[in-house]
Amino acid sequence: MPDSPGGRRIRRAPARPLHGRTAVVTGAARGIGEALAHGLSHAGMRVALLGREKAALQRAAESLPGPSICVECDITDRTALAEAARRVAAELGPADVVVANAGIAVSGPFDRTSGELWQRVIDVNLIGSANTARAFLPQLTATRGYFLQIASTAAFGAAPMMSAYCASKAGAESFALALRGEAEPDGVQVGIAYLHWTGTDMLTGIDDHPVLAALRRNQPRPARRVHSPAQVARWLTRGITHRTPNIYAPPWLRWC
């Protein structure tokens, strides 16, 4: 640790602050979750990939450069998540970073969307995120870790034909803001990531709905751009490295 001109010792941040630590990513079988698992693994983290698609999770885990495990579980099942948390601690060590990424979307008129399907979106995107936090908060408290809630521009910009998704992401954002105040005294930091158009399965077919197609067409040109999961994962990895309270993907969203 070098001395400053005044003789005081200067504490430098570690060159690789994530190296050797444990990360948990839900919805890691494909899309942003899979890309983020790669980003965190390349940063030197041990990564637990959680999701419902066992074969896809295994393929993703096998492609990572560092230690990893995959755990098949439904984040709406608290018992399954508790078992996943136990496995992570036993096999990789307690979680330092937990990313509540798992999410689904359904588009279409509210009055033509079945109540069961609408409820499923809320259950996965909102309740599932809270379940994830509940399962891993004891580990994050022990490690003074970082919980990242993946939200969306839908959290502050509701769109027609996306009522369940918008409601779930607004709820997830509000949940994370409340949790931030509760967890901070224990040394746990809570971040929220606001994502815009990203080229995942969730976006497939969005232009088939005239209202949604018009919404995207009438946005300013930079706002219409679809970003790759790999690019979004790079923004998220950078934010996780710095334990950023609010991550914007793309960065210009902070001005919205």
Topology:
Elements: E1 22-26, H1 31-42, E2 46-51, H2 54-62, E3 68-72, H3 78-91, E4 97-100, H4 115-143, E5 146-150, H5 163-183, E6 189-195, H6 210-217, H7 221-224, H8 229-241, E7 246-249
Parallel strand pairs: 1-2, 1-4, 2-3, 4-5, 5-6, 6-7
Helix pairs in contact: 1-8, 3-4, 4-5
- What is the fourth-level CATH superfamily? NAD(P)-binding Rossmann-like Domain
SS content category: alpha/beta
Return the average pLDDT rounded to an integer. 87
Number of structural domains: 1
Shape descriptor reads globular
CATH domain class: Alpha Beta
Kindly provide the radius of gyration, computed on alpha-carbon positions and rounded to a whole number of angstroms: 19 Å
- Our count of helices gives 8
Ranges where pLDDT stays below 50 over 5 or more residues in a row are: none
Number of strands: 7
Provide a brief overview of the structure.
By secondary structure, this protein is an alpha/beta fold. It is built from 8 helices and 7 strands, in the order βαβαβαβαβαβαααβ.
Structure overview:
- The protein has 256 residues and is α/β, with parallel strands linked by helices.
- The chain has one domain (22-250): NAD(P)-binding Rossmann-like Domain (Rossmann fold, 3-Layer(aba) Sandwich).
- Helix content is 43%, strand content 14%.
- The protein has helices spanning 31-42, 54-62, 78-91, 115-143, 163-183, 210-217, 221-224, 229-241, and strands at residues 22-26, 46-51, 68-72, 97-100, 146-150, 189-195, 246-249.
- A 7-stranded parallel sheet has the order 3-2-1-4-5-6-7, with helices on both faces.
- The radius of gyration is 19 Å and the shape is globular.
- The relative contact order is 0.13.
- The model has no long low-confidence stretch (mean pLDDT 87).
